[in-house]
Write a structure and sequence with these properties.
It is a single chain. About 45% of the residues lie in helices and about 10% in strands. The protein has 8 helices and 3 strands, in the order αααααββααβα. Strands 1-2-3 form a 3-stranded mixed beta sheet. A hairpin with a 2-residue loop joins β1 and β2. The longest helix is centred in the N-terminal third of the chain and has 21 residues.
Length: about 170
């Protein structure tokens, strides 16, 4: 600042000095605004081209969230149950239903013993269809059961005794 400046010249000198300090500080330190997911936040208007700040389809946002959280395997397992007809085909889905999926082993219940036999013969092609639809190593083995009446002879809650006779007989 000039020593003999007064009035408007002094004000102009102070403003120029403040402006120079601001530009020098802006050049040395830049605050990066990084979001929690590691993506840099862009400022300003997006313009006419595609931009990550533009509204996204819900499916794309969900896919990104599933990948970020590591939910690919549970999502694929849920697809087996939720889209059974699309996964195995309409005719097979009409006569069967998935019961449980544990450690890559899918248990399927058939409507009749004839369909259970048919599904056992088709097990290889069913595994290929499931793998092509939901991904590899989601289902590695099929257990196919026919319709069954309740059995009191085996199971985790088995109690020794006369069984159903003392209740129903």
């Amino acid at each position: 600042m000039p020593d003999g400046a007064a009035g408007p010249e002094l004000a102009r000198a102070v403003l120029d000095a403040a402006k120079a300090r601001r530009q020098a500080a802006a050049g040395t330190r830049r605050r990066s605004s990084v979001r929690g997911d590691g993506e840099k936040r862009l400022r300003g208007y997006s313009g006419p081209g595609p931009d990550p700040r533009d509204p996204q389809p819900l499916g794309a946002v969900l896919d990104k969230l599933v990948k970020a959280r590591g939910w690919q395997q549970p999502a694929a397992e849920a697809t087996v149950f939720g889209a059974w007809e699309r996964v195995v085909g309409a005719e097979v889905a009409q006569h069967s239903r998935p019961v449980k999926l544990e450690n890559g082993e899918l248990t399927v219940e058939a409507r009749s013993t004839a369909w259970a036999t048919q599904l056992r013969l088709l097990a290889g092609s069913l595994l290929k269809q499931i793998a092509s639809e939901v991904g590899h190593n989601v289902v590695r083995k099929l257990h196919i059961h026919g319709p069954a009446a309740p059995s009191w002879s085996r199971g985790p809650r088995r109690v020794r005794g006369r069984g159903p006779r003392d209740t129903y007989g």
